[in-house]
Amino acid sequence: MKAGVDEAGRGALAGPVVAAAVVLSPDRAIDGLADSKRLSAKRRDQLARVIQDQALAWAVVEVDASIIDEINILQASFRAMDEALTQLSVAPTEVLVDGNQLPKWRWSARAIVGGDGIEPCIMAASILAKVHRDRSMAVLDAVHPGYGFGTHKGYPTTAHREALMRLGACAVHRRSYAPVRRCLAVREERVAT
Fold first, then answer.
1. Which of 83, 82, 6, 93 is nearest to 56 (CA)?
2. CA distance 162 to 51
3. pLDDT averaged over the chain?
4. CA–CA separation, 163 and 143 (whole Å)
5. How big, in percent rounded to 5, are the helix, strand and coil portions of the chain?
6. Helix, strand, or coil here: 1?
7. Are strands 57-63 and 94-98 parallel, antiparallel or unpaired?
8. In this structure, is the dihedral angle defined by the CA atoms of residues 108, 34, 57 and 45, taken in order, positive or negative?
9. What domains can you pick out in the chain, each with its CATH number?
10. E strand or H helix at 95
């Protein structure tokens, strides 16, 4: 059984990185699968429900900003992928990962550049990871108002950078990321003068 793995949130300045692992049924094709970035939010939500209902196994794991800051985003992404694979109720015989890097883990695996647009199991993982992360960011938007997490999902938009300068970093910002570090340094400088 092939498991597809993908992550969401790697380039964001705030919030978790989320990985999903999916084992699709060879007997039940899911129509409409695509790279999550090419689908509308409504279509992703619809497909996520179908994937969760029809996949042989699936799992989604978050690794929060404090761990990202501690071990770096690549290692945090690999950790989330590893935990998602470990949580699958069906053991994969091969893991297909979107991208060009593989962690050292116990599964036979292949990295596929653009895999989230080629392999259905990676597409499914891409969708589950994105839907889960978007929902997490909507919750964080309510917990940390003013940053616009519900809109930009923590990515480095102009509005997000402006909010960072105005409000400073909150608990879910990735302090190891250069734009957040710069914001903190500017705010410290302002306080000192």
1. 93
2. 37
3. 94
4. 15
5. 50, 15, 35
6. coil
7. unpaired
8. positive
9. 2-142 (3.30.420.10), 146-192 (no CATH)
10. strand 94-98
CA proximity to 191, closest of 157, 168, 172: 168
Q: What is the pLDDT of residues 26-52, one digit of tens each?
A: 998 999 999 999 999 999 999 999 999
What is the Rg, in whole angstroms, of the alpha carbon atoms belonging to the chain?
A: 18
What's the token pair of residue 144?
Answer: 């940390």
Q: Order of strands, edge to edge, in the sheet holding 94-98?
A: 57-63, 17-23, 2-8, 94-98, 109-112
Give Cα 180 to chain centroid, integer Å: 19
Q: How far apart are CA 193 and CA 191, in angstroms?
A: 6
pTM of the model: 0.95
Q: CA-based angle 100:134:139, to the nearest 5? A: 140
pLDDT value of position 191: 66
Q: What is the 3-state secondary structure (H, E, C) of 105-147?
A: CCCCEEEECCHHHCCHHHHHHHHHHHHHHHHHHHHHHHHCCCC
Say which residues have a Cβ less than 8 Å from residue 29's Cβ, sequence separation at least 6.
120
In angstroms, rounded to a whole number, what is the distance separating the alpha carbons of residues 56 and 75? 27
76 CB-near residues (< 8 Å, 6+ apart)? 17, 63, 67, 68
At position 36, the amino acid (one-letter code) is S
Structure tokens at 143: 């917990």
Amino acid identity of 140? L
Name residue 28's amino acid.
R
